[in-house]
Amino acid sequence: MDSSTLRAQIEQIYDSQRISGKKGLTSTNIVILSGSGIICLFLSFFSGETGFMYLGIGFIGIAIYGIYSSPPAKSFQEKEKHLIKKYFDAADGNETIAAQMRKENKQKGLTDSLIDAIVNNRVFELKLREKAMTVLGLDETQIAELPPVCINDYYVQYKDQLVVKGLDDDINRTSSYRVTWLFFTTKQLCIHQYTFNILNETKKERTEQYFWKDVSNLTINDENEVSGKVLKYILIKVSGDEYKIFYKNTPEMKRAIQGMIAYYRDIKSL
């Protein structure tokens, strides 16, 4: 979903839900009331009927009240934050209540796919590939032998976070999201990891640069969740330390990971 389509969808869903909790009068309502009031005053002036005068004053009074009582306009960013918060309000400890809230959200357009689109758009705007290369001090010529690998997903390892189980899929969407870029030079494995909170926008960055001679092992492993779901992760062992990177086991990611491991074996065989 492109950013303009996403923006229009967020505006539409927000306006339909009236999340502000205070509806007030729309600009159309105010124009209609003001126009009706002016017409009534004209009729009162030409006909001499006081009833039209009182009716006109009433219409205009309601319009003025609507102008001052309507909630202030919210920015797009505020609307987006409201929708995200409402989505994660369904991360209730009571599964019955949480399931009902998720169904209500979906009926109002606040779907799992919309949240995915919002998060993906944020990641795109962060330009993390360029940021990672700058932080790591890399240029395109150094990473030409093997395309960099990007691993991004909702981060499920934090203890204090909200988790919403998808209605349309088996994905647990959390209030934390992590993007990891791996770059491969002839001498080093370079890693840039960016984790951010979707709700409050706090972030945490981590960078690592390992010489291939110090990497003792690089493997693919499984980890079983309590729910029975199997998580895939890359395990990097360096000088007695271990580094885990969880990833979605899609065909594209599987090929990228296999290419990375093949490159590692070629480097170690030299």
Overview of the structural elements:
Helix 1 packs across helix 4 and helix 2 packs antiparallel against helix 3. The two termini are 45 Å apart. The chain is 46% helix and 24% strand. The chain has a domain of 142 residues: PH-domain like (Roll). The mean pLDDT is 83. It has eight helices and nine strands. Strands 1-4-5-6 form a four-stranded antiparallel beta sheet. A three-stranded antiparallel beta sheet has the order 7-8-9, with helices on one face. It has a two-stranded antiparallel sheet with strand order 2-3. It has 270 residues and is α+β, with helices and mostly antiparallel strands.
Could you write a compact summary of the structure shown?
46% of the residues lie in helices and 24% in strands. With 270 residues, it is an alpha+beta fold.
What attributes characterize this protein structure?
alpha+beta; 270 residues; single chain; PH-domain like; three-stranded antiparallel beta sheet
Detail the topology: elements first, then pairings.
Elements: H1 3-17, H2 27-47, H3 50-69, H4 76-88, H5 95-107, H6 112-126, H7 128-136, E1 149-154, E2 163-165, E3 172-174, E4 176-184, E5 188-197, E6 203-211, E7 215-224, E8 230-238, E9 241-247, H8 251-269
Antiparallel strand pairs: 1-4, 2-3, 4-5, 5-6, 7-8, 8-9
Helix pairs in contact: 1-4, 2-3
